[in-house]
Amino acid sequence: MKTTTFIRLGLTMLLALTLIMLAACSTSSKTAATDVKTRVGIVLTEVGLGDRSFNDAAFNGLVKARDEKSIVFDYREPSKELTAEASFEAFSKDKFDLIIGLSDTVKADMEKVAAKYPDQQFLLIDSTSELPNIASISFRAEEGSYLAGVIAGMASKEKHVGFLGGMEIPVLKNFEQGFKQGVLAVNPEAVVDIVYAGDFGNADLGKQLAEQMIQEKGADVIYVAAGLTGVGALNEIQSLGKYAIGVDTDQFFLAEKAILTSMLKNVDVSIYNAVKSFIENKHTFPKKEIVEGLAENAVGLTALHNITLSDEQQRTFDDLKAKISSGQTKITVNP
Question: Rg (Cα) of the chain, in Å, rounded?
Fold first, then answer.
């Protein structure tokens, strides 16, 4: 009798132990499955973090996704020692789920690597590619720049404004052309000077060019789209008592006495949304080319500073904005 009782007790304990082990394995499996996150690598432009503009905005979009625990990510800042091509190659070898590159300046390097790794998914910001494994996000930045031009045209007392770009690349040509058309829409007699620094990372050069545009050419409002070079320009514009329009992020804090507004290109939002879509669609993109503008709230202006529009000016601005957003007004851009 005692022997039978011991056997039953042993079997009961064995069964209980088995159930505990199965439950532990099940919990471990669920935890492991939950902990598997999408791995994203991003290659910034040579200016890198701290530009208070394009790179920082893109980085912040991934930080948001990381904080929501949907991804883990790493980044590379190209330099003479570490090229963009080498950065894309490293991420590809490590089999990151998605590799992002910023701007037309890294396109050629991305395409070289993408051709070698046809199963690797890439995402190119501010340019497009024919390669099947490179998706893209482009912005109708000319729409936001047009609105920036409208404000510049209204603010200019000298009827002389300027555009200061970092490098003469297709995306910035769109900025330039949209801005000029916006200026002339409200101030048809205005002169619009166009200057390219040839560099996104030289604050001293930006300061020098801004000084020339103001003191030698007579511009009293300058739209600055030049990364870290632009930061130097904004500081100089403020020191000379003229007005500026910032770009990509709200740059008001960089030159509070000079900034009228900033043309927002919501790179952070677009990258965050693209990564979210990539995850939801099982590591694919529903559309190879994503193009966003004013209607999608991907571009626009921040609040106005250092200027108050008259009632008539406000009505004009609102009307022009509505026509662009609806597609009634088309902005002409040429390569």
Answer: 26
3-state class (DSSP) for residue 148: helix
Matching residue, tokens 């079997």? 11
Residues 6+ apart with CB under 8 A from 54: 45, 47, 102, 103, 227, 248, 265, 267
pLDDT of residue 8: 54
Residue 242's identity, in one-letter code, is K
* Nearest C-alpha neighbor of 148 from the set 173, 176, 171, 172: 176
State the pLDDT at residue 334.
Answer: 84
The pLDDT of 23-38, averaged and rounded, is: 51
Provide the pLDDT confidence category of residue 19 given band limits of 50, 70 and 90: very low
Which alpha helices (DSSP H) does 68-167 contain, by range? 84-93, 107-116, 141-155
291: left (phi over 0), alpha (psi -120 to 50) or beta: beta
The residues near 188 (Cβ < 8 Å, ≥ 6 apart) are none
Residue (of 237, 218, 242) closest to 226 by Cα position: 237
Question: Whole-prediction pTM value?
Answer: 0.80
Sheet of 122-125, strand order: 71-76, 38-43, 98-102, 122-125, 134-139, 289-292
Please report which confidence band the pLDDT of residue 33 belongs to, taking 50, 70 and 90 as the band edges: very low
Q: Mind listing the pLDDT tens digit for each residue in 8-18?
A: 545 455 444 44
Count of residues for the chain? 335
Distance of CA 272 to the CA centre of its chain: 10
Asked whether the beta carbons of 116 and 92 are under 8 A apart, the reply is yes
Q: Is 279 helix (H, G, I), strand (E, B) or coil?
A: helix
